[in-house]
Write a structure and sequence with these properties.
With 743 residues, the chain is of the alpha/beta class. It contains 20 helices and 20 strands. The strands form five sheets. The chain has a five-stranded antiparallel sheet with strand order 5-4-8-7-6. Helix 1 packs antiparallel against helix 5 and helix 5 runs parallel beside helix 6.
Length: 743
């Protein structure tokens, strides 16, 4: 469909061509008519001149004798026979002195048609010479004169005035005829020429002109259907080919432009001189520039280390032709560092290098996530070793705890031995803190969660950690604070570790600022945690700060810069917070101190009631089956249970425990309770054993015990069929409390 407006007729090529033809025909007609009129005039003038000379010659001959008469003799009736011709206006004879020898009557041809138009206009009494002059001027009269000779003597002359009226009339008729004929011929030829030219040349040109206008207006599918030959057909074919190529090129360019504009990664195109010639919107968004601020600038402008990084990459690209996935850094407009994964390659045209294409991916968040994963990997790599060590160590501690508890029972409470046993028990409690930290790294360790009063845990833990130090602490806590579901003991351990770390950063004293507030992450402002509600705990110190090279290592197990320390405090805190669904971040600059930020998910549950005071040591009665693969634990458990008044039977593994339980049921001596160790080396552990015991006796009352105090079975013992959980090492009072609840 032709959408281009048609030009006006006066501006069209048809009108200009038609006007040109008409002008050419007009000029040719004028030239032809003028030439013909000139030729006819020449011919008629020659004829008239010949006629006049003939008449003049005749008059001369007839008047030679008369001229020999005396000068006083007038010539009368000499011209009577000669002046009757309508082309002769007058005839005169003059002597050698120029004196007219003929009268007015003899000289003027009164039969000449033009005389009637001139004589009435002349004044009366006018002389013959004046009359002749008027006839020459107004009558288109042409004079022909011949001398009258007598021998060699000039006797006079004969003058004949010939009228050119007939010549003019003849020329006019001839010119009119020629013009009319020429116009008819020109009209026929012009029309034929215009029609032929219009069909062969003008119409194809008009079609091409309109198609060109459509093409210029953006209709890239415009084509012309012209059937011609020669240059016109070549022009039409070339136009169609050009339109097709332009459409392909333009569509491809738009497609490429759309791809470039929709890219999420940074694209920068350089000239061979290392000048930026193109940047995509993603680059501008990332760096905070407008495109015009970067176009024409050197590549160093966007690199964080400027020429140092840029030159190395640029040289490598020129040598190899490309670089792939190189770690580097860009600099934003406000000077911030952005970690980038850079790739670049040469743009070539034949053997010439026309530019360099640079694509870079913002890997800032990926690097943060990778650091987090590396921390987790390190924690997991320690987990297997830490879990086994803690389990075995807890088993050993259990024996010591048990014997100390029994020894205390057999000692006077005011005696020296009793006090020494208490000191030993406190030392063992410190040992359990170390195993607790090791267990934090063990695989599958789950906190035993409940909704806690976070402000109480924070303030109590902080004051306990800072007791006796020169460090002050200021609290700012939102009221009300959203509840948090957490393991109270683990969370207390985190706060103590964080505060001890902050106090170590201020050896000369100072103030720790702890801010606890509610925050929402509904718009994923914090990319490392999911959207939702969180409680943020900021621990800010005014120490010397953490060097940049240590920031990524402070949560690594066994990494420490302290002379006294095992490098487990921050690592354990990181693992605990991670298992609570939160994160820990740190911000620090040298000389500006450090701020640790802990994000814990808020809970919709109500806060659990306050913990009841620990009950007094109570005895009981009944028969208990103890399953444990450690002989020390079995012996100690038997002694502790016997002290509490229970009868005890022992089993090494699950198979033996099942056999004894079945035998007791068969004999009617059912056990009042069973204590099953969760992990049995080379045998059936507590998890598998309880499942089979329930099959034997759905009413079995079982306690799960383990040195892996954070095992999922320990945290969710009800789900596996147990009624209670007893973490090793446990004192006699804890065993008494659990049995009282169970029995």
């Amino acid at each position: 469909m032709d959408l281009s407006p048609a030009p006006s007729f006066k501006t069209s090529i048809r009108y200009r061509f038609l006007k040109g033809i008409c002008f050419i025909l007009f000029i040719s007609t004028c030239l032809l008519s003028g030439t013909l009129a000139y030729n006819v005039d020449s011919m008629l003038q020659e004829s008239l001149t010949s006629k006049g000379r003939s008449l003049a010659t005749n008059i001369v001959k007839r008047n030679e004798n008369a001229m020999m008469i005396s000068g006083n003799t007038r010539l009368e009736n000499v011209l009577t026979e000669l002046i009757t011709d309508e082309e002769i206006a007058y005839t005169t004879i003059a002597d050698n002195q120029g004196k007219l020898l003929t009268s007015q009557f003899e000289s003027i041809n009164y039969n000449w048609p033009g005389l009637n138009e001139i004589l009435p206009k002349l004044p009366k009494g006018i002389d013959l010479p004046d009359i002749l002059e008027a006839l020459k001027k107004d009558g288109y009269v042409r004079e022909i004169s011949l001398p009258i000779m007598l021998g060699v003597d000039l006797m006079g002359k004969v003058t004949i005035g010939l009228s050119e009226t007939r010549i003019r009339e003849q020329i006019t008729k001839t010119v009119l005829f020629v013009v009319a004929l020429n116009l008819i011929i020109a009209l026929v030829l012009g029309t034929a020429l215009f029609i032929a030219t219009k069909k062969i040349i003008l119409d194809p040109i008009v079609v091409l002109s309109r198609a060109t206008s459509r093409l210029a207006a953006g209709h890239l599918l415009s084509k012309v259907d012209i059937k011609s030959s020669g240059e016109i057909q070549m022009l039409a074919d070339s136009f169609n080919e050009m339109a097709e190529n332009l459409n392909t090129t333009t569509v491809s360019k738009k497609y490429v432009d759309n791809i470039i504009n929709s890219m999420m990664d940074s694209l920068v195109v350089l000239s061979p001189e290392n000048q930026i010639v193109l940047v995509n919107p993603a680059t501008c968004r990332l760096l905070g520039y407008d495109a015009q601020e970067l176009i024409g600038k050197p590549l160093e402008k966007i690199f964080y280390n400027g020429e140092a990084d840029c030159k190395a990459l640029f040289d490598e690209i020129l040598i190899k032709g490309f670089v792939n996935n190189m770690d580097t850094s860009y600099r934003t407009k406000d000077g911030k560092k952005v970690l980038m994964l850079f790739s670049g390659s040469l743009i070539t045209e034949g053997s010439m290098v026309s530019g360099i294409s640079c694509v870079a991916i913002d890997i800032t968040e990926q690097e943060r996530m990778r650091d987090e994963l590396l921390k987790l990997d390190k924690l997991e790599s320690v987990g297997a070793l830490a879990g086994g060590l803690a389990h075995d160590f807890n088993n050993l501690l259990q024996g010591v705890f048990g014997y100390i508890s029994l020894a205390k029972m057999k000692s006077a409470s005011d005696g020296e031995v009793y006090k020494m046993l208490e000191h030993a028990e406190k030392a063992l409690n410190l040992s359990t803190n170390l195993t607790q930290q090791l267990l934090t790294f063990s695989k599958g360790g789950e906190p035993i969660k409940k909704v806690v009063q976070l402000p109480l845990i924070i303030t109590h833990s902080v004051r306990l950690a800072l007791s006796g130090s020169n460090i002050d602490c200021q609290f700012t806590i939102d009221d009300p604070l959203w509840p948090v579901e957490a393991d109270e003991g683990q969370l207390s351990q985190v706060m103590q570790n964080m505060v001890i770390n902050a106090s170590d950063a201020m050896p000369t004293g100072g103030t720790i600022h702890i801010v606890v507030r509610n925050i929402s992450n509904d718009e994923n402002a914090l990319p490392l945690i999911q959207a939702g509600k969180y409680v943020l705990i900021n621990i800010e110190d005014s120490g010397e700060g953490i060097p940049e090279e240590y920031i990524k290592k402070i949560f690594d197990p066994y990494f420490t810069t302290k002379e006294k320390g095992n490098g487990l405090g921050l690592a354990a805190s990181f693992s605990i917070v991670k298992k609570h669904g939160g994160i820990i971040e740190v911000q620090s600059e040298l000389g500006e101190g450090a701020t640790f930020s802990i994000y814990l998910p808020a809970s919709e549950k109500n806060i659990s009631p306050a913990i009841q005071e620990e009950s007094m040591l109570q005895t009981g009665s009944g028969k208990i089956l103890v399953m444990d693969d450690d002989e020390i634990i079995r012996t100690m458990s038997e002694s502790m249970l016997s002290t509490l008044g229970f009868r005890v039977e022992l089993a090494v593994n699950g198979e033996e425990a099942l056999a004894k339980y079945a035998q007791a049921m068969a004999s009617g001596r059912v056990y009042d309770g069973v204590i099953l160790d969760l992990t049995i080396k080379g045998g059936m552990g507590g998890k598998e054993t309880i499942a089979k015991l329930i099959e034997l006796d759905p009413g079995v009352r079982a306690i799960v015990s383990s040195g892996y105090s954070e095992d999922p079975v320990m945290a969710n013992f009800h789900e596996y069929g147990f009624q209670a959980a007893l973490a090793k090492p446990f004192p006699l009072a804890k065993l008494s409390e659990i049995l009282q609840k169970l029995m």
